[in-house]
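Predicting holo structure, adenosine-5'-diphosphate bound.
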Amino acid sequence: MLGLMMNTPLLISNIAEHGAKFHGNREIVSVTADNPLHRYTYRECIGRAKQLANALHGMGAEQGDRIATLAWNDHRHLEAYYGISGAGFVCHTINPRLFPEQLVFIINHAEDRWIFTDVMFVPLLEAIADKIPNVEGFVVMTDKAHMPETKLNNIVCYEELIASESQEYDWPVLDERTASALCYTSGTTGDPKGVMYDHRSTILHAYAAVAPDVMNLSSHDVVLPVVPLFHVNAWGIPYSTFMTGAKIVFPGPKMGDGETLCNLLDAEDVTLALGVPTVWLALLQYCEAAGKRLDKLQRTVIGGAAVPRSMIEAFRDKHGVDVRQGWGMTETSPLGVANSLKAGIADMTPDERLDLATKAGRGLFGCELRIVDDKGNELPWDGEAYGPLQVRGPWICSDYYKLEGASGAHTDDGWFDTGDVATIDPEGYMAITDRTKDVIKSGGEWISSIELENTIMGHPAVAEAAVIGVAHLKWTERPLLIVVKAEGQDVTADELLAFFEGKVAKWWIPTDVEFVTELPHTATGKIKKIELRKQFADYQLTG
Ligand code: ADP
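Done. Tokens:
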């Protein structure tokens, strides 16, 4: 017997309408390339998204067509999110920091019909324009006064495109499984792979994200997503804000600028900021140098890479900011776990709390977790056993776009193999020990590069650090520590190695240390270990 509840589809346009109706006056503040501080409301945003939807129909877009964006975080990009997906097209967010060959690959693979771009990425598109013949034209997300001179064909000004369109638009009633957005993984090995979100997965994910033990979002919040809109839908923030009525502050092209971030956090009364650890490193360094305290910020959600203990400590002790770590990936929409304290284990010492906060987090309803051994048998949740992490749930990808099972990323019993290695403790807190491809294998045992990096980040002379495995005759691989020194600090390799003593197993302590002036980063601010491995491929260890 079926229940007697309405079967209304879960659609992104419902979130748009909800936000505009119930929180219509809530502000969206953006730093953009053509305006240092643009302000308007949810209502205006959705009005313009509807103008865009009308314009897209006028351009001949058909349901399911891929319409790409190549842009930083600002209000126009958000309008594209709603205008494109809400109207039944697929919003393909492209990471502008990919190599040109990867851009060409994903634009052609996605068969994008139009690309909406920021002015600053026009030269990038000019350089590849002859290799992406399916793209019919480019919409530059600016006003007439700021339109660039360009060799690109069929170029349209965004503000002019939507200006003549009506704000009256009836969102189509779609099947909730209709594709809504497309995001490619960064393709560190092989070609990038496309993850195709749908309306249903997006809405279920947004419901999960706003929960108290996850992001704890409400209409009282002011949210600064420093995580890019091109990186897994900025962790769902466009949707979870409109679902709750939180004010949004977009940093535009100023993502990595500690001073801008600090000023925005303060001036706009930001309560929640989200980003990868590298971004917060820049902010914390700026605050330290400028003698500033983040008085208004209440909490940060940090994920995308392991969060060093020293970062959690600095936020907590110097700024009174609670750090909530999260884990996820493009394939998981991205929220898989979130780290908040559970009832019953709250009576911990500050140090024990810190230890717990360095874990990725505990499972949230909607994303099942398991760790397995080499043969696929489930491993115990004892906080010690580690193995490949697998996940399952309604916002986890069931396949990659146009790969039809060829990736081998799914198990026969329907779980997604994340490519991460993890432990899970008896309370359900998961900790990533490594990515499978970053694992260091020494004498047949695994060494966690993440734990070594987290430990050394606690040394005051270390600004940033990475640990990679380097070939070793006797042990197969040994860890090499690569360090960027903090400004004005000096430290020797021996001093750094001594810092590990008593904190990690003796045989984990890196064999050598190399000092560099900077580490290579991916577009989303993560350390590019693949590049480091190439750079140090012929490294001769001393031990
Ligand atoms: P990319 O492949 O470009 O890094 P993703 O953003 O999908 O793309 O990255 C997901 C990966 O980031 C995860 O598989 C994991 O290795 C890493 N990651 C994410 N969150 C954490 C975390 N809290 N701790 C450690 N690693 C993390």
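The domain at 12-198 is CATH 3.40.50.12780 (Rossmann fold).
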